[in-house]
Amino acid sequence: MESLPDRPPVVRLPxxxxxxADHLPAGxxxxxxxxxxxxxxxxxxxxxxxxxxxxxxxxxxxxxGVYFGPxxxxxxxxxxxxxxxxxxxxxxxxxxxxxxxKAVGGTDxxxxxxxVHRARRRR
Length: 123
What we know:
Blueprint: E1 10-12, E2 18-20, H1 47-54, H2 59-104, H3 106-122
């Protein structure tokens, strides 16, 4: 399959209309000033990197921040998930032990549960 020919550049005429460079009207003179670069054609903004480098932070530190930043977020998320799981297990096991003590302990277990319940109310 043959490739399509390259499209000629688009030129803005003085009246504000646009046309292809190969269809310019007779007597058209291109402007002498610099060509306007639109925002979507501009290079990416590197303000933060320039500020960091200007403050004396080396390029290696910036690269490490770019690499280890998301890695640190992932590690902290994993740690938080593990701690949440451990807290859930502690609550579930405590609830189970309390119910077993109430059921098996007879009058002593119920008396102990009642004493704990009253102590918590007084706080």
